[in-house]
Amino acid sequence: MFQFSRVIRARLSRGIPRAHASHPYSTKVPSSNFRRNIALFGFISSPGLWWLTTTRDDVPRFEGSPTTQLNLPPGPSKDEVTQIVSEGAYSHRVDNVSGVDRYYGTQLASNSPCEDKFLHGKLPSPRNDGSQWMTWAVFDGHAGSQTADLLEKQLVPFLAHSLGQMKSLPSNDSVAEESIHNAITKGFMDLDKAIIDDAAELTRSKIPLHEKVKLLAPAYAGSCALLSLYDPVSSKLHVACTGDSRAVLGQKGPDGKWEAIPLSIDQTGYNMGEVERLQKEHPGEEEMVKNGRVLGLAVSRAFGDSRWKWSLEFQKEMKQNFNGPSPLTPRYDVRTPPYLTAEPVITSTKIDPTRPSFLIMASDGLWDMLSNQQAVDLVGKWLEPSEKGMELEPTYEPFDFGQFWKE
């Protein structure tokens, strides 16, 4: 690099004296600048001329002409894809919960470290009859994994506590369903309250600064939550959704085809029901939802995400005292927080034991690529004994992100 710069200077120096010589045979005494340029040229002319006259050096050369067909490296093979997807896979047989035979799961991270978490298992039935309920959950984290980490550890204990406060489930199905919905909602909201509201008390505590920062992290990060509870006594599947993960039920019809039944609706700025709810809660804030986002955030409900929930004054205080993220202002017009809630939208579905069925739960990473019916068809083919081992041809159009910019 240094030698190359010297060549450039040699070329410039050699040109400068020519500019001063207005006549080819002038006898005028050269100026001081002229003498200085001559001296400079003489000092560096030898290496400079070597660079200019040499015929070969060891600098890489790029040769060849472009071709119409690029020889791109091949993508992973089918076996390699299977291996990648199977690295985090699990499968569990269920023996003592009537109506559930087996469940499977896997996870493929889109970033490192992965911000998403999941859980699965049994919890005591609030009926207090010694039976067990099944539960599964997917936590799609964003702006860090801390909120999803906390949900993985604490959401089921909060739910179990809330469900356990019910003395008994009413015999009336609709009343029992309402009681369960209220208990699930309370578990979700109590946990988010602990994350968001307890931050003020935490900042005033006497614990060391580094411990405070660590405990505040779940409030600054965020996460969606999709949770399912299955009650074998009533054959009811309760699905609670906060965010844009999705649950879809696949049921086999009399004609042998699989029907896709959505059990949750994505809660984003594209969901008109959510937009209307927010506009009612924050009248006059026309720029609150724009391009499918709520003050820049892709979801309209979430755990954590304190900047969409705390007052501006408290956000500024946290920024000053703990170097937290900057408030959403002035980029966004924040007037009347909170704009987000962790309150789930809950559905309850009676599972028909005479019809083969399965449940798919996944974050938006899957649903960005597949429709509900495409996902159900693929799982249905895989479950059919006659289809096992057969090549599954994709039934969907090639994907690109252009569809997100429509409308």
From TrEMBL:
Ranges for domain PPM-type phosphatase come to 110-407
- One term of GO molecular function: [pyruvate dehydrogenase (acetyl-transferring)]-phosphatase activity
Parts of the chain that traverse the membrane: none
Alphabetized SUPFAM superfamilies for the sequence:
PP2C-like
* Coiled coil residues, start to end: none
Which InterPro entries has this protein been placed in?
PP2C, PPM-type-like_dom_sf, PPM-type_phosphatase-like_dom
Its Gene Ontology cellular component terms are: mitochondrion
Q: By what name is this protein known?
A: PPM-type phosphatase domain-containing protein
